[in-house]
Amino acid sequence: MEQKNYFVEKKMILMLGEYNRFGKLCARVMAGTSAFLVDRAPLQVLDDTLTYIGFDLKGATTGAKVVLDRKAKCPIIVNPYLGICLFPTKSPKKADCIWFNPEHIEKTTAMGNKTIVELSNGYTMIIESKLAAFNDKIEKARQLIHLSTKRGKQPDTSSYEHTPPIDHQLTKEKSGKYNFDTLGNL
Fold first, then answer.
1. Which distant-in-sequence residues (6+ apart) come within 8 Å of 39 by Cβ?
2. Are 102 and 85 in contact (CB under 8 A)?
3. Measuring CA to CA, how many Å separate 4 from each of 39, 50, 65, 160?
4. Residue 167 neighbours by CB distance under 10 Å
5. pTM: predicted TM-score of the whole model, two decimal places
């Protein structure tokens, strides 16, 4: 049986596209130890969730690209109030894209060119992605939620720049050490 709609919640572990018996793209959601089909495509579920709280998918995607200075396959914050961030395993436009909640990933292990993902509910999945690439996606999602939360709590538009000023960069000197002495002492 399919659910008519669904809003992403904290206990959602992952979501992926799955065609129902009529050939319609729906969302298969794993939340806790249950899995169910939602009568909406994964991108529609994300947009429904964002719209419900006053945002939209296009804005969340654009914002994530700016915050991370990244062009494609960005994670997105689906609910800033609950701190829910999801990341796609491949292009979100592909039906077999899996959206993971990094909070529910316990461990990742290489298996050749694939990755074994251990989930918070005790299940594991094998993902068609190299370990380093998959772990980078997890890290980008965590970075997005961290930076967005920090910016949201202490907005400072006067210091908004894409690149830090040269005099505030830590660089490796010929000695092999970084120039931490430019930071000063506490």
1. 2, 3, 4, 5, 20, 24, 26
2. yes
3. 5, 17, 31, 42
4. 6
5. 0.81
* Degrees, nearest 5: CA angle 70-157-101: 40
Helices (H), the chain: 42-52, 57-68, 131-153
Judge contact between 101 and 110, C-beta under 8 A: no
Per the CB < 8 A criterion, the answer to whether 135 and 100 are in contact is no
Query: What is the CB neighbour count within 10 angstroms for residue 184?
Result: 6
- Percentage of the chain with pLDDT > 90? 75
Residue 43 structure tokens = 């991108």
Q: What is the pLDDT of residues 134-164, one digit of tens each?
A: 999 999 999 999 999 888 887 666 555 555 5
Q: What is the pLDDT of residues 43-66, one digit of tens each?
A: 999 999 999 999 999 999 999 999
List phi, psi (to 5°) of 6: -160, 140
Q: What is the structure's pLDDT at 26?
A: 97
Question: Residue 144 burial (CB < 10 Å; 0-12/13-18/19+)?
Answer: buried
Q: Which amino acid is at 136?
A: D
* Amino acid code (one letter) for 108: T
Compute the C-alpha angle 18/134/3, nearest 5°: 25
Q: Which two tokens stand for residue 183?
A: 């930071």
Token output for 176: 């092999």
